[in-house]
Specification:
The chain has 2 domains: 169 residues, no CATH class; 107 residues, Immunoglobulin-like, CATH 2.60.40. The chain is α+β, with helices and mostly antiparallel strands. The two termini are 36 Å apart. Helix 1 runs antiparallel to helix 2.
């Protein structure tokens, strides 16, 4: 697929592209993965008898995109014949070349989309569980179906535009995303985690701290639902309740291991009932 992306800066209104196209409706512009508005397409003419009517061009916005806007310019060629040759009419070489080139460019774009989907299959198979893999394969299979029937070379522009949006959402700016997660419940002792494609993990839960004598340190072990790659991960611990006691929690410290976290507490008064703290860690998974 022919496309180019830019980040706005609050002052630039013109964004160029250098891939060939046949008419202005072939150019699809999105802003932050949504259809853009308030712009015009200015094409670079290929000249008389050129193989491509336009060799490139630029997008001119009425209002400059901000520094938070990601602009993507893509080419969308409908799967349809553009010329109907008549048996008794003289064939113009320029028209024939443009017609052949149009069909070749359509095939190239579809090949790019298929290659992208194949890469996603390979990446999913390498990283995800069987259940998640089958679910994502089903979703990607629908995307392949949505590409249309190449053998008939028929598909309308609106459907093809939707396909470009689907591929953009899954391939643009998604260098990392959640591939596995667990929601807290009584069955997992109210632990949770989010594991990303890169191996980054965010996990947490609740810990019950037992009764504690005054001016003593108590260590409570928490088993991590996902093993960490090392012990230099970030830890956050938050005090919730002391089970009805009036207390002053002077310090919360921790001892980190790859499979467990030891939460240490110290209080200046005796605590007769258990109480709860929440914990959260962030880092790379094993």
């Amino acid at each position: 697929m022919q496309k180019v992306s830019y980040m706005g800066d609050g002052s630039t209104t013109e964004f160029s592209f250098n891939f060939p196209y046949f008419e202005n409706t072939n150019i699809i512009v999105t802003k932050n993965n949504a259809t853009a508005t308030g712009y015009s397409v200015v094409g670079t003419s290929g000249g008389t008898d050129a193989d491509f009517p336009y060799t490139g061009g630029k997008i001119v916005f009425e209002t400059a995109p901000t520094s938070l806007d990601c602009i993507t310019i893509a080419r969308s060629l409908p799967l349809s014949r553009v010329v109907d040759y008549q048996p008794t009419a003289k064939i113009n070489p320029t028209t024939m070349n443009q017609d052949a080139n149009y069909l070749m460019e359509v095939i190239k774009d579809k090949q790019d989309e298929i290659d992208t989907l194949c890469s996603q299959y390979a990446d999913i198979a390498d990283k995800e569980s069987t259940t998640t893999l089958l679910a994502r394969i089903a979703a990607l299979s629908q995307q392949i179906t949505d590409l249309g029937d190449i053998s008939t070379l028929r598909q309308d522009v609106s459907t093809n535009t939707e396909n470009i949006s689907l591929v953009n959402i899954r391939t643009t700016g998604l260098s990392d995303y959640v591939v596995e997660s667990q929601a807290p419940s009584a069955d997992n002792n109210y632990t949770w985690y989010r594991k990303y494609k890169s191996g980054w993990i965010e996990q947490g839960g609740e810990a019950t701290i037992a009764a504690q004598a005054a001016n003593t340190i108590l260590g409570t072990d928490v088993t991590l639902p996902v093993t960490m790659a090392g012990t230099n991960y970030l830890v956050n611990v938050c005090f919730i309740t002391d089970g009805g006691n009036t207390m002053t929690l002077r310090n919360i410290s921790n001892t980190r291991a790859t499979t467990k976290l030891t939460i240490g507490t110290w209080t200046t008064i005796a605590i007769t009932n258990s109480y709860i703290v929440t914990w959260e860690i962030k880092g790379m998974a094993e």
